[in-house]
């Protein structure tokens, strides 16, 4: 019998690269039928809180708050060194220093917003907007700062904005861990064998993309904010790595570090469930 899985993934190139083969049935779906939606990461987070998905991409900030309801799959994560969001300024040379200043973040439950709050607590007024609006709003001087994610990491210099800080580098220096940005979570209501099957299909889809690098390009182009192929593959090269294939012990340690620091800073409730990587 076919098992239907409500799947949500983001439109960013690392996800469309990873899931291309699944979306187009280039790999064995192992008896699963995926009803897939591609959304902005904060939309995915919001829908996960509503229980709309069986398996979905989530910011690890959101996953921390959903840890009692979901388990993290070993494959499909964005975690690594040099992958952090950038804190940009509308005017080069500015630094966050006053409540009257406004910082744009790409969603309340994004890991980017969590990092900004960890390192710049109580310094500026935070507003949440769709990630693709952040750089245009900075260019129009509708805000002072913005936390930039996705393809904008590679294009901000063309927009004549200022770089305040790479928040990922700050994380790495503070923790010695790779930065866990987001991953694939599955509902704990699913039987373990269904979670294991979904994990196997995602792993196979990623393996297909790695072995057939150009094959996912049409899917990546369809959903990307930036249409330059070099930028798309720069994004994939940065965010798809060995930890995307398997989080492993290093990934679990990074998730534990993120949880600990967020709890200590009062940004998530103390004593919450631990983010658990599914072991099959």
Report on the architecture of this protein:
The protein is an alpha/beta fold and 280 residues long. The protein has two domains: 3-80 and 179-264, D-Maltodextrin-Binding Protein, domain 2; 86-175, D-Maltodextrin-Binding Protein, domain 2, CATH 3.40.190.10. The protein contains eleven helices and eleven strands. Strands 1, 2, 3, 4, 5 and 11 form a six-stranded mixed sheet that branches. Strands 8-7-9-6-10 form a five-stranded mixed sheet. Helix 1 packs across helix 7 (192-211), helix 1 (13-23) packs across helix 8 (217-223) and helix 4 (111-119) crosses helix 6 (167-175). The radius of gyration is 18 Å and the shape is globular. The relative contact order is 0.22.
């Amino acid at each position: 019998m076919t098992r239907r899985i409500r799947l949500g993934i983001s439109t960013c190139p690392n996800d469309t690269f990873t899931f291309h083969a699944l979306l187009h049935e280039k790999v064995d779906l192992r008896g699963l039928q995926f009803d897939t939606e591609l959304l902005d990461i904060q939309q995915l987070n919001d829908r996960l809180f509503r229980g709309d998905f069986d398996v979905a991409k989530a910011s690890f900030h959101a996953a921390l708050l959903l840890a009692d309801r979901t388990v993290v799959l070993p494959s499909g994560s964005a975690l690594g060194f040099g992958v952090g969001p950038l804190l940009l300024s509308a005017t080069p040379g500015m630094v966050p220093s006053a409540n009257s200043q406004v910082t744009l973040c790409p969603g309340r439950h994004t890991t980017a917003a969590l990092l900004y709050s960890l390192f710049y607590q109580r310094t500026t007024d935070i507003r949440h907007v769709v990630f693709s609006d952040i750089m245009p709003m900075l260019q129009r001087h509708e805000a002072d700062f913005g936390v930039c994610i996705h393809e904008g990491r590679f294009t901000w210099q063309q927009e004549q904005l200022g770089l305040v800080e790479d928040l990922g580098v700050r994380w790495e220096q503070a923790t010695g861990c790779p930065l866990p940005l987001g991953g694939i979570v599955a509902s704990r209501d699913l039987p373990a064998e269904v979670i294991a099957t979904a994990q196997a299909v995602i792993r196979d889809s990623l393996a297909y993309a790695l072995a057939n690098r150009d094959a996912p390009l049409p899917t990546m182009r369809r959903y990307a904010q930036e249409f330059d192929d070099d930028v798309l593959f720069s994004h994939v090269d940065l965010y798809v790595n060995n930890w995307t294939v398997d989080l492993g012990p290093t990934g679990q340690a990074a998730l534990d570090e993120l949880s600990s620091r967020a709890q200590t800073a009062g940004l998530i409730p103390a004593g919450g469930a631990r983010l658990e990587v599914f072991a099959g």
